[in-house]
From TrEMBL:
PROSITE patterns: AMP_BINDING. SUPFAM superfamilies: Acetyl-CoA synthetase-like. The lineage of its organism: Bacteria, Bacillati, Actinomycetota, Actinomycetes, Kitasatosporales. NCBIfam families: PRK07787.1. Belongs to the ATP-dependent AMP-binding enzyme family. It comes from Streptomyces sannanensis. This is AMP-binding protein. Gene3D superfamilies: 3.30.300.30, N-terminal domain of ligase-like. It comes from the Bacteria. CDD domains: MCS. Pfam families: AMP-binding, AMP-binding_C.
């Protein structure tokens, strides 16, 4: 396996990471992280209190250089869930910024405060490709979160595939404000620039002003989630400096959930730039993406990345071989990007695979040219109504094209006649004058098909979302 961080071994003087006014070069990062390596060697698994800080970046790199597996911890996790993660992953110690208060669930672990400087050291040799790099906890539909064990080869495979697809080089400067306890913000958003020898500027907290400032000051790439791009689209109407900054970026990437077509269109109209989408998950890292030199087609997540095999499987387990833009199947993938196992859960690991194909639980169709169009989660977004299989995502996009709709989510609920009926959860653009249910149903029927129209419309002040901006559909029925 290739060296994970070539620029650290080369002790490059170029800036590697910046959080606000605090920054380290690749050489400085190698020194700070390297000073921790002797204390982490042989540690097995290491927890990292993953605040959006320079210390998190240093701690993660140090653990990886030492051959330990990183367990990134979300500082907002509740005590009960955090206690489960600590008991399940059994880290030997926890890394945190000096002065950071840690919860009681971490009280039994040795704590090491992460330095941000150190003497120049020789970076140690890399562990094997199959050595665990991360244990990232992901919530399922039932039960406590499961720890997905990601080997080093999966990190390398994904980052190199993205570099090829996005023409990502050491000259790129990535801007983002994503959490550092998820794959998106940490592995793609921090390790990606480090592997390329480029740099990342983390905003700490997302703001449209911060995005404009950093892109205008040399940023070439922006990573975000749909909530962030929606706020950018809203601000663009009155902010010419933001429009100019986004127009100057080489690549605008959205992930973690589908970006509504309406926001795609507003950003392109104001900046001339297209937002590209990619598709991945904790267990697989990245599977598909729009290429930097490909067609940016709103509503799709592009083609399988180099080294990733992807197929669609019907309910009977048969592969859908025709790319007809209509047939819906579950996405299954295989390749070097896959996780090794769910920690301590051989039953769940076995259930997640069909042979060597990973069952993603995501439903999609493929266009005739192979582009993948995700229509939703198998468990929550595939609605069987009147004998039809309907993806919630396409109905949501249609609703978002209505001028009276600010946000929308679509679910199914039992119906004695149809099996399931389509329910639209809508945040109106003007709460004082929302569109009628009949108007929205007709709007969808005219754009898609009559059987895809919502039979029920429920208006909300806001949709429940998680830290990554994903709509928590299971919480909608509790609203």
């Amino acid at each position: 396996m290739s060296v994970l961080f070539p620029a650290l071994h080369a002790a490059s003087g170029n800036e590697a990471v910046r959080f606000g006014d605090r920054a380290l070069s690749h050489a400085g990062l190698a020194a700070a992280a390297g000073s921790l390596v002797p204390r982490l060697t042989g540690a097995g698994r290491v927890a990292v209190w993953a605040t959006p800080s320079l210390e998190t970046a240093v701690g993660v790199v140090a653990a990886l250089l030492a051959g330990a597996a990183v367990v990134p911890l979300n500082p907002k996790t509740g005590e009960r869930e955090l206690a489960h993660i600590v008991a399940d992953s059994a880290p030997s110690l926890v890394l945190a910024a000096a002065g950071e208060r840690l919860p009681k669930a971490l009280g039994g672990l040795e704590r090491i405060d992460v330095p941000t400087a150190g003497p120049a050291v020789e970076v140690p040799a890399e562990p094997s490709a199959e050595a665990p790099a991360f244990v990232v906890y992901t919530s399922g539909t039932t039960g406590p979160p499961k720890g997905a064990v990601l080997p080093r080869r999966a990190v390398v495979a994904t980052l190199d595939a993205l570099a090829e697809a996005w023409q990502w080089t050491g000259d790129d400067v990535l801007v983002h404000a994503l959490p550092l306890f998820h794959v998106h913000g940490l592995i793609l958003g921090v390790l990606g620039p480090l592997r390329r020898g480029g740099s990342v500027r983390h905003l700490g907290r997302f703001s449209t002003d911060g995005v404009a400032r950093e892109l205008a000051a040399g940023g070439t790439m922006l990573f975000g989630v749909p909530t962030m791009y929606h706020r950018l689209a809203e601000a663009l109407e009155d902010d010419q400096e933001l429009a100019k900054a986004l127009a100057g970026a080489r690549l605008l990437v959205s992930g973690s959930a589908a970006l509504p077509v309406h926001d795609h269109e507003r950003i392109t109209a104001a900046t001339g730039r297209h937002v590209i989408e990619r598709y991945g998950m904790t267990e697989t890292l990245m599977n598909t993406s729009i290429r930097a030199d490909g067609e940016a087609r709103p509503g799709t997540v592009g083609l399988p990345l180099p080294g990733v095999e992807l197929r669609l499987v019907d309910e009977a387990g048969g592969e859908l071989t025709a790319y007809d833009g209509e047939s819906v199947g579950e996405i299954q993938v295989r390749g070097a990007n896959l996780f090794t196992e769910y920690l301590n859960r051989p039953d769940a690991t076995a259930a997640a695979f069909d042979g060597d194909w990973f069952r993603t639980g995501d439903m999609a169709i493929r266009d005739p040219d192979g582009y993948v169009r995700i229509v939703g989660r198998k468990a929550t977004d595939l609605i069987k109504s009147g004998g039809y299989k309907i993806g919630a995502g396409e109905v949501e996009n249609a609703l978002l094209e209505h001028p009276g709709v600010r946000e929308a989510a679509v679910t199914g609920e039992p119906d004695a006649d149809l099996g399931e009926r389509i329910v639209a959860w809508v945040v109106p653009a003007d709460p004082a004058a929302p569109p009628s249910a009949e108007e929205l149903a007709d709007h969808v029927a005219n754009r898609l098909a009559p059987h895809k129209r919502p039979r029920v419309v429920r208006f909300l002040d806001a949709l429940p979302r998680n830290d990554m901006g994903k709509i928590m559909k299971r919480a909608l029925h509790d609203v």
